[in-house]
Write a structure and sequence with these properties.
There is one protein chain. The chain is built from five helices and no strands. The chain is an all-alpha fold. The protein has one domain. It is globular.
């Protein structure tokens, strides 16, 4: 499953959102390597979207935490919660079907963050 998340330049935001939701489906997060692949895809997607600039800092911190080798559940929980908060805000101004997809992503991020809370 590694690197299945890599996006081509023509891929839509909805494809990336769906891939991220799938990575957290049924409470099972992607491996750190898959998480890093998703983060790379998100960087590519967000680099030209000024409305989503608040996601870059927590994504970078999440990337650093995953690259460190022994990620802290508490730090991961905090970063995923921050990403969920920022995603929720982004969804309020999105158009088309993005608000519902971003809402689903927000729930997936919060649910997984909550599961990390119970294992800290």
């Amino acid at each position: 499953m590694a690197n299945q998340h890599s996006q081509t330049s023509g891929s839509s935001a909805t494809t990336l959102i769906d891939a991220t939701i799938e990575a957290f489906d049924q409470g099972k997060a992607a491996s750190p390597q898959e998480g890093l692949s998703l983060i790379t895809d998100w960087y590519s997607s967000l680099k030209s979207d000024h409305n989503a600039s608040n996601l870059v800092k927590p994504l970078k911190e999440l990337e650093d935490e995953l690259k460190g080798g022994s990620p802290s559940n508490e730090k991961l929980r905090d970063l995923l919660t921050e990403l969920a908060d920022q995603t929720e805000v982004l969804g309020q101004d999105a158009a088309g079907d993005l608000p519902s997809r971003l809402s689903t992503l927000t729930v997936a991020l919060r649910n997984f963050a909550s599961q990390l809370s119970t294992s800290v």
